[in-house]
Amino acid sequence: MEGKKNKILVFGGTGYIGKYMVKASISLGYPTFVYTRPINTKTPSSKIQLCDEFNSLGVTLVEGELEHDRILKVIKQVDIVICTFPYPLVMEQLKIIDAIKVAGNIKRFLPSDFGVEEDKVHPLPPFQVFLDKKIKIRREIEAARIPYTFVSANCFGAYFVNFLLRPYESNKDIVVYGNGETKDLPPPEDIPVSILHSIFVKGDLMNFELGEDDLEASKLYPDYNYTSIDKLLDKFLVDPPPPASASFQ
Ligand SMILES: NC(=O)c1ccc[n+]([C@@H]2O[C@H](COP(=O)([O-])OP(=O)(O)OC[C@H]3O[C@@H](n4cnc5c(N)ncnc54)[C@H](OP(=O)(O)O)[C@@H]3O)[C@@H](O)[C@H]2O)c1
Fold it and tell me: What Gene3D superfamilies does the database record attribute to this sequence (predicted)?
């Protein structure tokens, strides 16, 4: 007989990556909770539609701000916590870590990583400052002895294809980086450029070996039918998704 399914709570579950996590969790049969900011008159209709969709899928939506007592109450009801907060909220995860420490029941926490393997890359300073915050969260989780999985997603295919190739734009001009004219970008505009430099110029994603505690995701899910970039481009030619852009402030 199948054991009791773990209950999964997602912070940031209505976001770019979070919504995929929530739908995957529910489709695999896990009781799924989403902790979300309260809906009000300023809430975009896209989020309201998504919340309706989550409700119809059987997701439990918990509305609230990031207050200790409120998040502690929800964390006590679940087994696994996943956080997909955007970069500006990375340090807010300290509140989740505090609540997990007090609750004492969480079997696994996945913090909002989902980018490069921040313990192993050495990018330009604007991106390093960005990563330092995510690294701090990793160290806090380890110090608190919370069971964890750190996920390095590297580049989300659709996100970067859209960002670099802009298939939704019909104009004939293209921007070519590196014409020799040095520009000084103010923060946070210097972050995306230094991310692109790290990935595409330095090749940071390919510059390290996996250690004995690391696992390549394709080995974890060998039966999963991955979408190749070729297949993605075919889809984008016909029906490009709206552009996505991560927030940096
Ligand atoms: N590897 C890649 O290609 C790639 C690309 C983009 C992002 N990322 C990483 O993936 C992670 C998630 O990024 P994302 O772009 O998916 O995030 P996002 O969509 O910008 O935000 C996720 C959710 O966080 C909540 N949120 C946003 N602003 C908030 C605020 N001011 N106060 C409280 N809650 C707020 C919202 O949920 P509610 O409204 O429901 O509360 C939002 O839906 C980040 O760590 C990012 O660095 C990786």
Answer: NAD(P)-binding Rossmann-like Domain, UDP-galactose 4-epimerase, domain 1
